[in-house]
Amino acid sequence: MRYGFWMPVFGGWLRNVPDEGMEASWDYVKRLTQRAEAIGYDLTLIAELNLNDIKGVDQPALDAWSTAAALAAVTEKLELMVAVRPNFHQPALFAKAAANIDRISGGRLALNVVSSWWADEARQYGLQFDQHDDRYARTTEWLQVVDGLWTEERFSFDGRYYRTDKAICAPKPVRKPTIYAGGESEAAKTMIASLCDAYVMHGDPASAIAPKIADMKARRERAGGTPMAFGMAAYAIVRDSEAEAKRELERITTVRELPAGYANFDQWLSGTQLERELKIQEYAVSNRGLRPNLVGTPEQLKERIAEYEAAGLDLLLLQMSPQAEEMERFAAQVIGRA
After folding, report:
1. Helix, strand or coil, per DSSP, at residue 304
2. Where is the Luciferase-like domain (predicted)?
């Protein structure tokens, strides 16, 4: 299993805990990332949202791509998986900038391609927002343009959304960055099986993850691609006793009043095609992070992680709070590399 962590670009992950002790600042993410690299984490996922989806839209949120470029220069081993939303980036210009960040990192850049869900954010920034299946049609073209710029000396493209005319990207990436993507609709799965390298999922029990992996493996085989990797979001709480872990779980999931960002969550819930209905309690932790039940003693977490490995999962993308302190505990007691 590879272990990744979500970069706390929003100043935390708990929507109903106002202050988690990790400010949205360059100083914090720099120290966190360098320490994570030292204690055995493999990857960080840097989310891209211009508005703060966790703490409320009026709160600070770090820019994903300038943060990634800075982290590329001050780390040595960690894979930098940076979220990118195609409707926010012209693909030919993006390919040039991303190739440069990959060069700065020595070949450690990866993309998490997200077909945007937040209509209000796009409207506020004056950007195009497509309907669901149209978003994946746009993303398909976007990926074709980025790949063409990264692999061909001159690249021309004439599509519905994008055009290039003998465009050049030089220097190119050290190696072509890994393309991660997630989605539960038919349009998303079709695109990912054809054009991406790895499939990332919201949190679910291993019994629900196993058939999703099997389905995507079959789709990939039909598409004629190389084997895919599989990742999943999860929120982790590790304590010396199960009772301690459950007390922490109760603390982070008790919702006494609807926080400032609830309207954003409601819009996301209504705008995506999730296979199962999200419970309102799960608002406290994003990306269905509590469903994997990585809550308990080190031995319990190791057993559950082994079940995911048996199901074919390669990567856990972890959220914790407060991030630095909990990542230290998880590395020492679960990963065992610290």
Report:
1. helix
2. 21-314
pLDDT per residue, tens digit, the chain (338 aa), is 999 999 999 999 998 888 999 999 999 999 999 999 999 999 999 999 999 989 988 999 999 999 999 999 999 999 999 999 998 999 999 999 999 999 999 999 999 999 867 888 888 988 877 776 788 899 999 999 999 999 999 999 999 999 999 999 999 999 999 999 999 999 899 999 999 999 999 999 999 999 999 999 999 999 999 999 999 999 999 999 999 999 999 898 876 665 555 555 555 555 554 433 355 557 788 889 999 999 999 999 999 999 999 999 999 999 999 999 999 999 999 999 64
- Cα separation, 102 vs 110, in Å, equals 8
Instruction: Name the burial class of residue 23, with classes exposed (0-12), middle (13-18) and buried (19+) by CB atoms within 10 angstroms of its CB.
Output: middle
Cα gap 177→150, rounded to integer Å: 9
Which class does domain 2-335 fall in?
alpha beta
Residue type, 315: L
Q: Distance between CA atoms of 98 and 171, rounded to whole angstroms?
A: 11
Where residue 40 falls (left for φ over 0; alpha for ψ -120 to 50; beta otherwise) is left
At 153 the three-state DSSP class reads coil
Provide DSSP, 83-118.
EE-GGGS-HHHHHHHHHHHHHHHTS-EEEEE-----
109 close to 177: Cβ distance less than 8 angstroms:
yes
Give the β-pairing of 163-167 and 155-158.
antiparallel
What is the C-alpha separation between 90 and 84, in angstroms, rounded?
11
Q: How many Cβ atoms sit within 10 Å of the Cβ of residue 147?
A: 16
d(CA 265, CA 267): 5
Residue ranges of domains in the chain: 2-335
